[in-house]
Amino acid sequence: MEAYNESLSHDKAFYAQDIAGSIAWARANKNVGILTEEEFNKIETGFEKVKKEWETDTFNIKPGVDEDIHTANERRLGEVIGTDIAGKLHTGRSRNDQVATDLRLWVRDKLQEIRAHVENLLRAIISRADDEIDIILPGYTHLQRAQPVRWSHWLLSYGFFFAADYKRLNTVIDDLNMCPLGSGALSGNVFGVDREAIGRELGFNGLCWNSMNAVSDRDFLLETMSWGSRIMGHVSRIATDLCIYSSQESSFVKLSDAYSTGSSLMPQKKNPDALELLRGKSGQMHGLLFGFTSSMNSLPSCYNKDMQEGTASIIAITRLLSDSIQILTGVLSTLTISPANMSKALEPSMLATELADYLVKRGVPFRETHHISGRVVALAEKEGKGMDELDVEALRGVDKRFGDDVMECFDHEAAVEKRTAKGGTARESVREQIRVLKALLKTGQMPAWRVA
To answer: 32-90 pLDDT, tens per residue?
Structure first.
């Protein structure tokens, strides 16, 4: 049962946060007369020694005694400064509000690190989009070639997914950054400690206002996991696109050797291992979220041991997120593109919409022009030609309203440059999208309508 019950194998990761919380708690107890100034100083100095032992991997864990990080740190503190003083530390505090505090502090620290990784990912996307804005490739819907777009526009489509994730992450961090310490086991503190001072010392933005809620709330873990599930969904989608783009059938991109491997049997193959692992680990993320959601479902009020299951899950999730985002950034920063292969894949049939739009500008209703354009596609297929190989007379045989200038429709660059509305794939529209993402990284805000 001891092995089944212990959590130190996981929550030892929180040693620094547990010590910071204990020092803040000791200071609060000193300020209400529970501890003398001398006793507080010994506790603070003792914890500095305990923290150093964790940092240098010299902390001696005692199996069967150290059930969790809280008991381990307090036990060791007693050995360093004496149990007569260390025994006063826990006055008015419960492991219920202690673990809630440790978790919030640790998750906040990890999410701030992950936020920096998301920023680096966005910078990598912005940099490539800026540098490679001239490149055009097929845009796909339903995995079918649809219309020509700029390579930069494709990159930025994921940039804006990750930008939305970035904004949501800021909200997750703000929401969890509330102090539960001083709530006790469930009913609060009888010694009149200054919870606001505790919260400010630990860098919280505010208080958990109800003590029963404070010790039982793990929504901040679920929100973190849910956020992780969402961004990993986006990671899996760009990974799939890049798997397709790096295949021999497309050969639009080539992954760096650092993010791919050869086959153990077939020497000609180069496998996109990093991308496939990113997809696979997104499934792991969804599973961890579902698992802890199930653990929290239908729990009675206040603290229950079921909540301990969130510790291992959140540690695994933050590590997975940190690794995955950094690896995707590495993939995007180091891959090479083949503009020639992208250009080669631009078929004339992808310009069928241009014919329809051409007639719209001549006053023909779009529903009619759509059918006319479809008949041109069918004619080209029947004659075994590209649409751009049909002459004007052949096009007029489909509809007499085609003019001599209709052949100008068969220009992929021109087609791309016509998409000038905000959000489109024209050069200036793409540049504006780049400016929007740069503004987000600079100010934390996404411009609503326009950006200079």
So the answer is: 999 999 999 999 999 999 999 999 999 999 999 999 999 999 999 999 999 999 999 99
233/165 Cα distance (integer angstroms): 11
| Paired residues of 136 in beta bridges | 150
pLDDT of res. 350: 93
C-alpha distances (whole Å) from 31 to each of 20, 40, 194 are 17, 10, 8
pLDDT above 90: residue 2: no
Q: For residue range 276-290, list pLDDT tens digits in order.
A: 999 999 999 999 999
Q: ∠ at Cα 200 (196, 16), nearest 5°?
A: 120
- For the full predicted model, state whether its pTM sits above 0.90: yes
Residue 265 has pLDDT above 60, yes or no: no
Whether 142 is catalytic: yes
Q: Tell me, what's the pLDDT at 110?
A: 98
The CA radius of gyration of the chain, in Å to the nearest whole number, is: 30
Catalytic pick from 9, 263, 294, 301? Answer: 263
